[in-house]
Amino acid sequence: MILSQALHSVNRTLSAANIDDANIEAELLLCSILEISNAQLYSEPERLLSATEIKHLHNFVKRRLSHEPTAYILKRCQFYGSDFYVDRRVMVPRPETELLVEKTVEFAQRRCLLKNQFVIADIGTGSGVIAINLALALPEARIYATDISPSALQVADINRCHYREASNRVKLLQGNLLEPLSEPVNVIVANLPYIKNCELQTLSPEIINFEPMTALASGEDGLDKIRCLLSQAPGKMCSEGCLLLEVGHDQGETVSSIADSQFAQAIIELIPDLSGINRVVKITL
Ligand SMILES: C[S@@+](CC[C@H](N)C(=O)[O-])C[C@H]1O[C@@H](n2cnc3c(N)ncnc32)[C@H](O)[C@@H]1O
After folding, report:
1. Confidence class of residue 27 from pLDDT cuts 50, 70 and 90?
2. Are 9 and 96 in the same domain?
3. pLDDT digits (tens, 9 = 90+) for 175-189
């Protein structure tokens, strides 16, 4: 089989199974197996695939047809322009979460705080993508990255060690929300689970059958973890600090009013993502 045939065949098979963006997924699978760039995929259409490569491809397609996310099959994903290792111990980072990183960097850069004393906590770090990107973008900041799941922290550690320029400024801590923090921080950033119990059944098989439940579920209204984090926050934050929380499409107003009752003097903003959905609640003390 030659490359152009393989690409066409995988695309057709994934499309027939109603997999979204089948052409992009086919490209990703083939580029990964052949270890080539997207440009090479189209500049070498006559390239002959070896028996091992074809076997490998069949295996990947079979896994994708069983709804395993491509990021788990390839054991990698992109987030905020960088590559990260992922597997089933962590949730696959979502593009909309990049807004949290962008807004945190913006806040940190505006506040000219004493340089090496700027401390950020990424709560529910998962694969560590938020914490590591913040360390890369803010060379003077120290970052705590916490998670309740020891196995998620193993993945975060793989990514932390890969980015040497960030590794010594990102400290991984296991525990419940803010409990592991040993000092007050300037910024708390968190993409915690926010799915309502009743919505779990409606999630795609890619999510519900493969992603860790601890990364998804958060009680009846989806706000158990966020509510608990907000109640822990006083005493864990420096004055004039800031909390940036990712929320579900219909949770912005409720989280704002919980934050308002917790921090009477705070400035609370809802920040929309590119689709106009209120995605981040920013609480400036
Ligand atoms: C939605 S995932 C986000 C992962 C990562 N921050 C990202 O944006 O891709 C939520 C993460 O919060 C962690 N988590 C759940 N409950 C927690 C708790 N009580 N304390 C700390 N982390 C928690 C989960 O293990 C999971 O890694």
Report:
1. very high
2. no
3. 999 999 999 999 999
259 shares its domain with 228: yes
- Ligand 1 and 177: CB distance under 6 A: yes
Q: What is the pLDDT of residues 105-133, one digit of tens each?
A: 999 988 765 555 799 999 999 999 999 99
Residue 222 CB less than 6 A away from ligand 1 = no
Q: Mark which of 36, 66, 96 sits at the end of a domain.
A: 66
> Does the pLDDT value for residue 160 go beyond 80?
yes
Number of domains in the chain: 2
**Is residue 195 domain-resident?**
yes
Atom number, ligand 1, closest to the C-alpha of residue 179:
20
Q: How many angstroms does the Cα of residue 87 sit away from the middle of ligand 1? A: 15
Ligand 1 centroid–CA 42 distance in Å is 39
Q: What is the mean pLDDT of the chain?
A: 95
C-alpha distances out from residue 117 to 100, 139, 167, 187, Å: 21, 12, 17, 12
What residue numbers bound the domain in which 7 lies?
A: 3-66
Q: Which residue has the least CA distance to atom 7 on ligand 1?
A: 93
Query: Looking at the structure, do residues 118 and 46 belong to the same domain, yes or no?
Result: no
Looking at the fold, whether 104 and 42 belong to one and the same domain comes out as no
**Is the torsion defined by CA of 29, 35, 37, 41 positive or negative?**
negative
- Starting from the edge strand earliest in sequence, which strands make up the sheet with 119-123, in order? 170-174, 142-147, 119-123, 185-190, 237-246, 278-284, 267-272
Domain with residue 92: its CATH number is 3.40.50.150
